[in-house]
């Protein structure tokens, strides 16, 4: 997802209305590719963020900006302060319909004479840049990213060089008066899908806007233009024209599209994305608000993923070792199943002791334990007496029987550990913020899987809340986000008559249906089971078994790991989880 020409058009319009004529009080550079201008205009303070980040380039007015600035300002920041700090913004514009913003600043030079500098913010993915130039001759003062000939032979960005705009694209500007014939001709000249032809032939349009235009015209976006009738293409032109008429009139509908079932941001735009009508929207009159909301949320997700990578790797390694350990233990268990044969050897030697002499290496006797009384050959140690050989087999039998009991016990321990760590891995994958990740790290440190930075082994207070849902019948349903929350939900929040749910023998969250001393309807039980299946390792599976019982039947054994409980007198329901139902039941946070 990137800022397309439409979003740039919208943000420039907002900047013109809020900071045009404003004074630049301060300049900061918290990142190598990011500059923040503190602006005072009409008795209001603004923070204008200019970012040339390769992954998230953007321009917007920030409300909640908390990045720390370096102790020593970078050279590029010092140049900005020298040339534009104290100056007034005299012009803000979009270059053509490109993803380029131009900001002109008028200030006084060393001789107290008026001079104008231009800031170009180029939003072009990894080629994004912030460039400061002299307005009178377009000479480059400096840039956030210097581009020498060794990087690009086509276009260099270096101090002292003349600034030239990026090479023009062979596309039509959708803000120009494009006739219906021109529009259809452009589409037909492209060999490919219809929606691709729109953003390939017209400037500043992103794939999502192309698809939105097709959706509004009720046309299949994936077919080629040759597969449509002339009337279809005329309908497409009508929607295209209407959308850009709003652009010309500065009519925007800034929004973020959110899939609440998976708590994921799908896209954002300055136009109403009607093709996502079944999903949720965050809307605001300010494009800056939408941009900040999107990137702030995305930044949290990225940071959670980044900071959990070492944790996921560590748990994954531990799980692989446990899987191998369990495999070997099962092999040992199978071997121990043959212990009875050694008892038979000992008893047969004792029964036929009169036939055996010291020095014999084997003996063949009739096996009276066999229904057919078949002859069996028993190996002997020639250095032992017949009685000693019998005792050797009895001891081996006893040893293997004892080993079987111990191996079975160890297998149970290994399985419990695997179940626990699989639950941890599921919780990590479902983390929505750093606080939830911190809860998991704290838990792993407390139970000994990670080195704890704190000497205090006691459990700390919960820093996050569980998922909250409301059933179709009006019953609150709570879902734990991690083991710490699972324990808190089941052992502290749930009443004895509440319904407890969990996927059967599958890692997943504890689910509590608050009964308020009422009978729980079948619909609510089904919806609770759906949530239990959805927030489990079997989220993508069909017919997932979910156990449920009253909370009073759920116990936590002494010494059990977080999230681990035992239960009895349960029922089992089979459900197939869906995103739509989860989104429908979720209680929206204020």
UniProtKB/TrEMBL annotation:
Residues 312-339 form a coiled coil. Keywords: Coiled coil, Protein biosynthesis, RNA-binding, rRNA-binding, tRNA-binding. It comes from the Bacteria. Key component of the ribosome quality control system (RQC), a ribosome-associated complex that mediates the extraction of incompletely synthesized nascent chains from stalled ribosomes and their subsequent degradation. RqcH recruits Ala-charged tRNA, and with RqcP directs the elongation of stalled nascent chains on 50S ribosomal subunits, leading to non-templated C-terminal alanine extensions (Ala tail). The Ala tail promotes nascent chain degradation. May add between 1 and at least 8 Ala residues. Binds to stalled 50S ribosomal subunits. Residues 465-561 form the NFACT RNA-binding domain. Belongs to the NEMF family. One of its GO terms (molecular function) is rRNA binding. InterPro entries: NFACT_RNA-bd, Ribosomal_uS13-like_H2TH, RQC_Subunit_NEMF, RqcH_bacterial. The keyword tRNA-binding applies. GO terms for biological process: rescue of stalled ribosome. Associates with stalled 50S ribosomal subunits. Binds to RqcP. Gene3D superfamilies: 1.10.8.50, ibrinogen binding protein from staphylococcus aureus domain. It comes from Romboutsia hominis. This is Rqc2 homolog RqcH. GO terms for cellular component: RQC complex.
């Amino acid at each position: 997802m990137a800022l397309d020409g439409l979003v740039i058009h919208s943000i420039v319009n907002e900047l013109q209305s809020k900071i045009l004529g404003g004074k630049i009080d301060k300049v900061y550079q918290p990142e190598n590719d990011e500059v923040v201008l503190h602006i005072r205009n009409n008795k209001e303070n603004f923070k204008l963020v200019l970012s040339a980040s390769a992954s998230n380039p953007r321009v917007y007015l920030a409300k909640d900006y908390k990045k720390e600035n370096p102790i020593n300002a970078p050279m590029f920041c010092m140049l900005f302060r020298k040339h534009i700090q104290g100056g007034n913004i005299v012009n803000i514009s979009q270059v053509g319909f490109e993803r380029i913003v131009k900001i002109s600043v008028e200030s006084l030079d060393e001789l107290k004479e008026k001079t104008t500098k231009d800031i170009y913010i180029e939003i072009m993915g990894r080629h994004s840049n912030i460039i400061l130039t002299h307005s009178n001759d377009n000479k480059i003062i400096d840039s956030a990213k210097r581009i020498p000939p060794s990087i690009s032979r086509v276009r260099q960005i270096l101090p002292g060089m003349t600034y030239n705009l990026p090479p023009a694209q062979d596309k039509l500007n959708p803000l120009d008066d494009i006739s219906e014939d021109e529009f259809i001709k452009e589409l037909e000249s492209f060999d490919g899908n219809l929606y691709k032809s729109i953003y390939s032939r017209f400037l500043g349009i992103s794939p999502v806007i192309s698809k939105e235009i097709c959706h509004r015209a009720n046309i299949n976006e994936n077919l080629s233009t040759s597969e449509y009738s002339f009337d279809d293409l005329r309908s497409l032109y009508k929607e295209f024209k209407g959308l850009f008429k709003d652009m010309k009139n500065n009519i925007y509908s800034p929004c973020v599209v959110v899939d609440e079932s998976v708590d994921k941001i799908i896209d954002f735009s300055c136009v109403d994305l009607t093709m996502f009508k079944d999903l949720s929207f965050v809307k605001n009159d300010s494009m800056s608000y939408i941009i900040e909301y999107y990137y702030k949320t995305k930044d949290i997700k990225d940071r959670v993923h980044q900071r959990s990578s070492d944790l996921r790797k560590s748990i994954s390694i531990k799980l692989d070792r446990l899987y191998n350990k369990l495999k070997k233990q099962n092999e040992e268990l199978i071997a121990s199943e043959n212990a009875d044969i050694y008892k038979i050897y000992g008893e047969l030697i004792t029964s036929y002791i009169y036939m055996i002499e010291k020095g014999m290496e084997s003996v063949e006797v009739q096996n009276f334990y066999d229904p057919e009384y078949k002859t069996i050959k028993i190996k002997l140690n020639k250095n032992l007496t017949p009685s000693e050989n019998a005792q050797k087999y009895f001891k081996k039998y006893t040893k293997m029987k004892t080993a079987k009991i111990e191996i079975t016990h160890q297998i149970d321990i290994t399985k419990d550990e695997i179940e626990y760590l699989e639950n941890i891995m599921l919780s990590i994958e479902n983390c929505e913020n750093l606080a939830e990740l911190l809860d998991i790290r704290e838990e792993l440190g407390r139970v000994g899987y990670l080195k704890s930075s704190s000497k205090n082994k006691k459990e700390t207070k919960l820093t996050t809340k569980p998922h909250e849902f409301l059933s179709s019948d009006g019953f609150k349903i709570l879902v734990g986000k991690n083991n710490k929350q699972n324990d808190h939900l089941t052992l502290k929040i749930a009443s004895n008559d509440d319904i407890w749910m969990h996927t059967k023998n599958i890692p997943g969250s504890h689910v509590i249906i608050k009964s308020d001393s009422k009978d729980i309807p079948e619909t609510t039980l089904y919806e609770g089971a759906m949530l239990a299946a959805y927030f489990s390792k079997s989220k993508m599976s069909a017919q997932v078994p979910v156990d449920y019982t009253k909370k009073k039947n759920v116990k936590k054994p002494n010494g059990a790991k977080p999230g681990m409980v035992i239960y009895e007198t349960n029922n089992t329901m089979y459900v197939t989880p869906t995103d739509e139902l989860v989104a429908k039941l979720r209680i929206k946070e204020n």
